[in-house]
Structure formats: structure tokens, C-alpha cells
């Protein structure tokens, strides 16, 4: 059995974020979910754990806490929120893989200079994470 990765999904409650979470829950991953809509993300976490018995999912109150514990950070937030989130996680995202699904990597790289940034679609995130191990 391969090592379990801890993945923070910031923006987990929107449509793309939820799809990413559901896909990652089927792998050997521990998911740390954060979204501004706390109730919606709790419903998502419950849906994932009900549908995938082996899923390990935790809802966190702050993107910094989720990112601090994570091996990989997925930014599934709208473009206009990525700068604010990047500023909140900058100190804890050092030397971590940060995957964005909306924003150009170049702009985020300036905000997260000590992170490895990759842009991916919801379909390719799981393979990128697997290759990062």
C-alpha cells in the first residue's frame, strides 16, 4: 500500500471543488476541506464519507490550518479569491505542491515563491498528485 497523502482543497464547496474532492476521496488520500460556506462543505464531507467508506475527510475552519497540515494544496477558488488565499497560506505552503484550476501559474508563483505551482484541470489533478509522491 502506498503512503497516504494529505491534500488540502481550498474552495471545496463550489462545483469544481466538490468534484475534485469526490475524485480524490477514492484514492489513498486524507482530505482537508475548507470553503467559506461552512454548511455546504460539511454536507460535502458527509456525502463523501457516506459514499466512500474508506475516505478520510476533515473540515477545517481556516485555509492556513488546512494548508499547514497538507502535502499538496489544491486551490479550487475563483480567480478573484486566489490572491487573498495565497497571502493567507504563503508561510505554510513552502516546498509544497500547489495546484490551481483557475489562475495562471505565473501570477500565483510571485505570491507563493517557495511553492511548486501547477495548473491542472479537475480531470488531471489525481494523476499530478500521484506523480508527485
Major sheet description: 6 strands, parallel
CATH class: Alpha Beta
Mean pLDDT: 92
Shape: globular
CATH topology call: Rossmann fold
Number of helices: 6
Structural class: alpha/beta
| Overall number of domains | 1
Assess the beta-strand content as a share of residues.
Answer: 15-25%
- Main β-sheet, spatial strand arrangement: 3-2-1-4-5-6
Order of helices and strands: EHEHEHEHEHEH
Proper CATH architecture: 3-Layer(aba) Sandwich
Q: Could you name the CATH homologous superfamily?
A: NAD(P)-binding Rossmann-like Domain
Question: Could you explain the architecture of this structure?
Answer:
- This protein is α/β, with parallel strands linked by helices.
- The protein is 44% helix and 21% strand.
- The protein has a single domain (5-132), classed as NAD(P)-binding Rossmann-like Domain (Rossmann fold).
- The protein contains six helices and six strands.
- Helix 1 runs parallel beside helix 2.
- InterPro entries: NAD(P)-bd_dom_sf, P5C_Rdtase_cat_N.
Quick description:
This protein is α/β, with parallel strands linked by helices and 133 residues long.
Label this structure with key terms:
133 residues; alpha/beta; Rossmann fold; six-stranded parallel beta sheet; 6 helices; 21% strand
Layout of SSEs?
Elements: E1 5-10, H1 15-25, E2 29-34, H2 38-51, E3 56-59, H3 63-69, E4 72-75, H4 79-89, E5 97-100, H5 105-111, E6 116-119, H6 125-132
Parallel strand pairs: 1-2, 1-4, 2-3, 4-5, 5-6
Helix pairs in contact: 1-2
Amino acid at each position: 500500500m502506498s503512503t497516504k497523502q494529505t491534500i488540502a482543497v481550498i474552495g471545496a464547496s463550489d462545483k469544481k471543488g466538490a468534484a475534485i474532492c469526490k475524485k480524490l476521496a477514492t484514492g489513498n488520500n486524507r482530505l482537508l476541506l475548507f470553503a467559506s460556506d461552512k454548511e455546504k462543505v460539511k454536507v460535502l464531507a458527509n456525502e463523501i464519507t457516506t459514499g466512500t467508506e474508506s475516505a478520510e475527510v476533515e473540515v477545517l475552519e481556516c485555509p492556513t490550518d488546512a494548508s499547514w497540515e497538507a502535502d499538496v494544496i489544491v486551490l479550487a477558488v475563483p480567480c478573484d479569491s486566489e490572491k487573498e488565499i495565497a497571502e493567507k497560506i504563503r508561510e505554510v505552503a513552502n516546498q509544497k505542491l500547489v495546484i490551481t484550476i483557475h489562475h495562471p501559474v505565473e501570477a500565483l508563483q510571485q505570491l507563493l515563491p517557495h511553492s511548486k505551482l501547477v495548473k491542472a484541470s479537475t480531470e488531471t489533478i489525481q494523476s499530478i498528485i500521484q506523480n508527485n509522491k
